[in-house]
Amino acid sequence: MIDEIQKNLLREVADLDSLPVGAYNIRTNGASAARATTANIDIVTKADGKGIDIYIKPFTKNESVHIPVIISESGLTEVVYNDFHIGEGADVTIIAGCGIHNCGDQKSAHDGIHSFFLDKNARVRYVEKHYGSGDGTGGAVMNPTTVVELGEGSYLEMETTQIKGIDSTSRVTRAKVASDATLIVKEKIMTHGEQFAETDFTVDLCGENSHANVVSRSVAKDTSRQVFRSNILGNAKCHGHTECDAIIMDHATVSAIPEIVANHLDASLIHEAAIGKIAGEQLAKLMTLGLDEKEAEEQIISGFLK
Amino acid sequence: MLELKNISFSAETEDGKIKDILKDVSLTIDERFVAITGPNGGGKSTLAKVIAGLITPTSGRILLDGEDITELSITERARRGVSFAFQQPVRFKGITVQDLITIAAGRRLSITEACEYLSEVGLCARDYIKREVNASLSGGELKRIEIATVLARGTKLSVFDEPEAGIDLWSFNNLIKVFENMYEKKGGSILIISHQERILNIADKIVVIAGGELKKIGTKDEILPELMSASGSFACSTLSEKIV
Question: Is A251 within 8 Å of chain B by CB?
Answer without folding.
Answer: no
